[in-house]
Each structure stands twice: as structure tokens, then as C-alpha cells.
């Protein structure tokens, strides 16, 4: 599963990458800033495409912020969101929590890369040692994770025109990990390649088979992994130092890591 990632791109970089008009960037994106330890329930940057209310046959692409942990529109309260941070590709088109969003509310969640924890056979004080790895495109390009978003109506807010009346949330789609990455964890986020941005984001397209064909695991060599400090395991820690590779001798200030590669 994908439960932690890094997001530090400038909004201008995302505007260029996803071909978004400058006027379609919410102020909350600028205010969010860099986050090298994105965790569930955090506000995250998302690329969404919405129908144009004035011209229903047209769409508008926006850069906005959403809360990580999907809350379906039918949910009685928001507590379900903490359990819906990921959606499995194998069942996303059928599960009630994701089916409607998959059909009409797909998004892209830009990232530098994501973290995954490898569970070693060795134990310390009877507990398995878990070594975090940072998994990212080796060329430094943006990692475009496939996501879904939902809009939940908070009925405790009487004015439907108020921003507080609507909660925007998201989930990350996952699939079986490729051979190399599967040695770290058996699941990984699905990626949307640049030539498929338009088709994936298009809210006017809802054919399940066509949409599923857009999603493929990362090709071999598309991503690389290296061990990082166990400091990332605590959401209290943040900053670019979390992306630093462990030295060859594996000297981690937090602990002595297990070498996988």
C-alpha cells in the first residue's frame, strides 16, 4: 500500500506539467508548501478536471488541495476516510466506496516519490525490523499517482455556498508491485503516464474497461529505491533530509538498517 509520500514541487512546475491555466490554481495550493512526509489525513495537491457549468460539453482542469482519505458522498460522517487511503485496482470499479468516484471523479496526485517499509527477518526485542525505502523516478520527473476524489456535504453547515460545507477527499489507487519493488512491499501506487493524463482525468469518460486499460504498473527501471533514515517513520519529522540515502555503511542515526539491495 501507499501510506506515505513526498511532495515538494513548486505550483508553477505542476501547472506546466499538467497544462493548467494559471487562473485555475487554488490559493490553498500555494499555501500548502513542501511536505517531505505526507501522511493520511494531510491536505495534498491534486489535479482534477471538472465539467464547465456554463458549457457542459467542456471541462476545466484545476490544481487544488484535498484531504487524503476518501469520504464517499453517502457516508454519515468523515471517520471512514482514515480507512480509505488506498483503493485496489482489482476491485475499484465494483466497491461501493469507490465505484462512483472511479466513473466520474478521477484525479492525479503529484509526488516526488513514495516511501515503503521492508520487513526484515531479523528482530530487535522480539519485533521485526522495518527499513524505510524511498521509491522514485531516477530522472527526477514528477511521479503522477492515479487517484480518485470525492466531495462530501457537511450538513452541520447550513449554507451550501460556504467552502466549509463541502469536504474534498482522495484515495491512491494501488496494484501488485513489480518484481524489483515487490521485494520491498507487494503493493505499489498506480501511475498515470503523461500521454494518458487527458484520458484519465476526463470526467465525460466513464467506460470501466477503457479506464482500467489506462492504468498499468510502472515499467521495469521506471522507478528506483534506496534506503532512508527511519526518521521518516514518525510524522513529527519533516524536511528534505528525509530523502537522503543512507551511507554505504548503513549508519542510520535512528538505528542500524537492514540492507536489501
UniProtKB/TrEMBL annotation:
Q: Which InterPro entries match?
A: SRAP, SRAP-like
State the top-level EC class.
hydrolase
The answer to whether keyword Transmembrane applies is no
State the source organism's domain of life. Answer: Bacteria
Q: Kindly give the Gene3D superfamilies that the UniProt entry links to this protein.
A: SOS response associated peptidase-like (3.90.1680.10)
**Keywords, alphabetical:** Covalent protein-DNA linkage, DNA damage, DNA-binding, Hydrolase, Lyase, Protease
Query: A GO molecular function for this record?
Result: lyase activity
Q: Does the entry feature the keyword Metal-binding, yes or no?
A: no
Residue numbers spanned by region Disordered: 237-261
Question: Which processes are annotated in GO (biological process)?
Answer: protein-DNA covalent cross-linking repair; proteolysis
Supply the EC number(s).
3.4.-.-
| Family of this protein | Belongs to the SOS response-associated peptidase family.
Can you say what this protein is called? Abasic site processing protein
Species of origin = Kribbella sindirgiensis
